Amino acid sequence: MARAPTEPIRVLVVDPHRSSGEALQLALSDAPDLEVVEVVADGDAAVRAAARRRPDVVLIDLERPASALEATRRIRARVEGAGVILFAEDDDPLTLARALRAGASGCVRKTDGVGDLADAVRRAARGEPVRGEVVAERSAQGPRRRSAGPDQLGERVERLTPRELEILREAALGRRNDDIARALGMSRHTVRTHVQNILTKLGVHSKLEAVLVAIRYGRVAPLAPSGRERGTGPPEP
User: Fold this and answer.
1) Beta bridge partners of residue 61, listed in sequence order
2) pLDDT given at position 226
3) Residues of the chain by 3-state class (helix, strand, coil), percent to 5
4) Cα angle 161, 166, 167; round to 5
5) How far apart are CA 13 and CA 15, in angstroms?
6) How many other C-beta atoms lie within 10 A of the C-beta of residue 59?
7) Between the CA atoms of 21, 27, 28 and 32, what dihedral angle is there, to the nearest 10 degrees?
8) How many angstroms separate the CA atoms of 40 and 56, rounded?
């Protein structure tokens, strides 16, 4: 059901930190044409709240990229006409490009003023693209990976969880996501989420690149152990 022109724009805020989420709620509520209907902490809660509250715009913190992008896709699929704005701390163009492909109206910086954010909400509610400072500077260049020196890349590898390393070891055997899911007893959706987290942590474009980085830093064996079943091809991109 379309919002009447005289009704305030209904906003759902998604922020893993309760204090900052509530601060954002108070700041946006100062605008007479905006109404924050709920503040939730994660992507799953956001999808449920969006289905229940039917907001005009959803603001999602990009601190947890995989969760934020999945929530964006699900909200856009379930809530007709809802705009999604992601607010980011840094200017990683690859993550921001993925956000736009997931259906987000655009991205803004956390350091932007409340007035700028309110204007972005109004544009998203009208169905217009949101070109925050981050996207405006990078969109013409296209996605590109930020370079990382050996020390920095090694630190990124060390941040991988045991489960993420397990997935990379399976990928190094040439296994596809379906095979990895069966081997590790998880759903394919969960595998995809883990892979997205791995790519984000390492700052690489594909699962193959992630495997090569993990091999380089000794976290994944370069050859399959004797007797292990191998897949039929290289890791999926």
Assistant:
1) 87
2) 37
3) 50, 15, 40
4) 100
5) 6
6) 27
7) 150
8) 16
Give the span between the Cα atoms of 162 and 164, in whole angstroms.
5
Question: Would you say 169 and 220 are in contact if contact means Cβ atoms under 8 Å apart?
Answer: yes
pLDDT grade, residue 207 (50/70/90)? confident
Q: Which two tokens stand for residue 202?
A: 């390492």
CB-based contact 99:86 (threshold 8 Å):
yes
C-alpha 179/C-alpha 119 separation (Å) is 46
Q: Give the Cα separation of 165 and 48 in Å (integer).
A: 31
Q: What is the pTM of this model?
A: 0.56
pLDDT (mean) for 64-92: 87
CA angle 236/214/187 to nearest 5° reads 45
Angstrom distance (rounded) from CA 88 to CA 111: 9
| Residue 157, CA atoms < 13 Å, CB-side half-sphere | 20
- pLDDT 10s digits, 135-194: 434 443 444 444 455 567 788 888 999 999 999 988 888 788 899 999 999 998 899 889
